[in-house]
Design a protein that fits this description.
Blueprint: H1 2-18, E1 29-30, E2 45-46, E3 49-50, E4 52-53, E5 56-57, E6 60-61, H2 67-84
Parallel strand pairs: 1-4
Antiparallel strand pairs: 2-3, 5-6
């Protein structure tokens, strides 16, 4: 899996130069879609820089939790309800 992902990143890096595109090493992250208790560490490099591995993608975190998204949505809803009191 790591070898396949590294191959994809290498191909993307090579293709970007043909189109004069820049890829930000500091903004590019790797997310391994393996949800569960086992945490995987991937050492994927863009050119010579190792990419940061994110622990969540979208609303699902690596530990299969959506607690952060749920808390965010509850906070938004609470703010809207508080504003209704002013009406």
């Amino acid at each position: 899996m790591q070898h396949d992902l590294q191959d994809l990143v290498d191909h993307m890096h090579a293709a970007r130069s043909r189109f004069a595109l820049k890829v930000s090493n500091s903004k590019t992250e790797v997310h391994v879609q393996c949800i569960g208790k086992d945490e995987r560490k991937m050492n994927i490099k863009l050119a010579i820089t190792e990419l940061k591995q994110s622990d969540s993608f979208g609303v699902i975190s690596a530990d299969s939790s959506c607690d952060k998204d749920v808390a965010k949505r509850i906070g938004i809803a609470s703010g809207i309800v508080r504003n209704l009191d002013d009406i």
